[in-house]
Amino acid sequence: MTAANATPGPTYIFAPPAVPALPVRGASALFPVHRIYCVGRNFADHAIEMGHDPAREPPFFFQKNPDTLTAPDNGFPYPSATGDVHHEVELVVALKSGGSDIPAESALDCVYGYAVGLDMTRRDLQAEAKKLGRPWEIAKAFEHSAPCGPIHPAAEIGHPARGAIRLAVNGAVRQDGDLGQMIWKVPEMIAHLSRLFVLAPGDLIFAGTPAGVGAIQRGDVMEARIDGLDGIVVTVT
């Protein structure tokens, strides 16, 4: 087909936004992000510190927008409309395939790799939303609320099921847990999510946080680390 008779592509009333993407460790190609799912209260000690009984509830999920992802080097701008922003260090699961009703036994076949991420939370707005029975988006899905490091392909590192997950603020450790403490393991999360949504390549799952979440202030330096993965350092601006 020549250029003269080629079918023209779509036009837009303004330029569409860029595709959100994460770097892949050791590769030049980027990982394009489709959706971000987050599992709530997936560490028993964190559920308890938030006033819940972890033995009484099935997994539940909320979402962040893909464009809330930010590179650690960009820092974390302290958001508006809040006076109580908390850090939550999390294992991030990156999917290369998806579908519906995925069996837990084959769910890891969908995983491309893993990264270290932060689920930054406007805790005061979340508490108000909980009290009123309202959604959490204003607490979870604000700009720059998902700092995330590079993805490590599972083909190179395997599927981490145990190992330290920690966060320090200004050198003082606040969160110190182990991936083995997750109530719902990665295959179970994928299987459960796939009964609620059609999962797709490019989806991310933030897999929950251990106890020790707390407030940060401008000028603080957050260091998030998970054994076997590149850690991230994020300065609050």
Structural account:
The strands form five sheets. Strands 4-3-14-7-8-11 form a six-stranded mixed β-sheet. It has a four-stranded antiparallel β-sheet with strand order 13-12-16-17, with no helix packed on it. The chain has a three-stranded antiparallel β-sheet with strand order 9-6-15. A hairpin with a 2-residue loop joins β12 and β13. The model has no long low-confidence stretch (mean pLDDT 94). It is 14% helix and 29% strand. The radius of gyration is 18 Å and the shape is globular. The N and C termini lie far apart (53 Å). The protein is of the alpha+beta class and 237 residues long.
Quick summary of this structure?
With 237 residues, the protein is of the alpha+beta class. The protein is built from five helices and 17 strands. Strand 1 and strand 2 form a beta hairpin.
* Amino-to-carboxy terminus distance: 53 Å
Provide a count of the helices: 5
Coarse structural class: alpha+beta
Percentage of helical residues? 10-25%
Number of strands: 17
How much β-strand is present in the residues? 25-35%
- The biggest beta sheet, please? 6 strands, mixed
From the spread of the alpha carbons, the general shape counts as globular
Low-confidence stretches: none
What are the secondary-structure elements, in order, as H or E?
EEEHEEEEEEHHEEHEEHEEEE
Average residue-wise pLDDT: 94
Radius of gyration over C-alpha positions, nearest whole angstrom: 18 Å
Strand order of the main beta sheet, please? 4-3-14-7-8-11
